[in-house]
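User: quick one, fold this
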Amino acid sequence: MPSYDLIVIGSGPGGYVCAIRAAQLGMKVAVVEKDKTFGGTCLNVGCIPSKALLHASERFEEAGRAFARMGIKVATPALDLPTMLRFKDDAVDGNVKGVAFLFRKNKIEAHAGVGRIVAPGRVEVKPAGGPGSTLDAKAIVIATGSDAARLKGVAIDEKRIVSSTGALSLERVPRHLLVVGAGIIGLELGSVWRRLGAQVTVVEFLDRILPGIDAEVARQFQRLMEKQGISFKLASKVAAIDSSEQVLKAAVEPAAGGAASTIEADVALVAIGRVPYTEGLGLEAIGPKLDERGRIPVDGRFATSVPGIYAIGDVIAGPMLAHKAEDEGVAVAEIIAGKAGHVNYDVIPNVIYTSPEVASVGKTEEELKAANVAYNVGKFPFTANGRAKANQQTDGFVKILADAKTDRVLGVHIIGADAGNMIAEAAIAMELGAAAEDIARTCHAHPTLPEAVKEAALAVDKRAIHM
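Assistant:
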């Protein structure tokens, strides 16, 4: 029976990073993975392929609409969807092979199959169509990630009624795409197919899009998406989808109750969130018991109620983000090795990779108001930023929220081109406990988009220069 210091179940961002860090710390490590390739949802059917399609579709639209304004004359671009999908697949292939290389480099042993914890320190691995094996370890980390949430009464076939997985591989551009859910996944993938020629309608149960994002940012973002051609039907729910005919017919009702209307679509994307994936782990027999949302409870050291068993990533509380899982993977490996692993949950960036991008870190205005925290606001629009004007990328703004007494940065929210990269400056500042004044007095290169971050910091004290 093979014996290890650590067995990690799942090779997504949390799992593979945990395994690598543990190996760096001198542990003998094994990873159990049920899928054919490493990388979990993120690398195979999530973050990486969606970003490849977002990038490709943005370049397609830019060539058709923006090149002429810059004096670049090209023929009207034609979409070659099979080649674009191969471009996406190549991105996936390169990344999953990269994880396999890192496992070999760090002498991490991989076991293919479904991992089931049969006792503390013991994992049974069952490959598809083959005999199983049993592994022993001093510690086990559950990093099995999450799965797409299902809409009651609606069967996903990944052809016409799809999850995010099917939406990444549609064989043709739908005439009309219905997106159920106005969260990050629905809006990212909806924007991809809108740029490629689909009519897109988004149905959201709440009376706003992007729950959890700063409300002012969400309102501005919705206006920009509507300007681009995406339609929203808020405070509404999809009660059923009839797939018996060639065209899907979705029954849409007011969230508060009332008569239903019908929306016809070629494809329906169900993007109502994700749920922890714990199927087949054997937790019902040995514990720990799951909470009301199907998550595994852990303490501040990622330990479950069962000695020697830990959990990280989407299966525990917190935002379902790859980088959050990665930080937890590093922290739990260090904790198991006797070191002081830690994750600062107050500084976890969140990015929506649409065009323009939306990025945030820290508290929203709504959260600060609910907590009765006095704060000052500094805002700066990209219409007043020299680089944004030169690039004709003036949509959006930077907003900084700082403590009214100490000036410490409590939250930063950006909507605009390259927001996902700009938010890193804010995350570093908050991690180091910076004040808005610290950002304001830091020299920023000119002309750059991040100058808007500096100007927003100046605006906290009502002394922005270019506004």
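User: anything notable?
Assistant: The chain has a mean pLDDT of 97.
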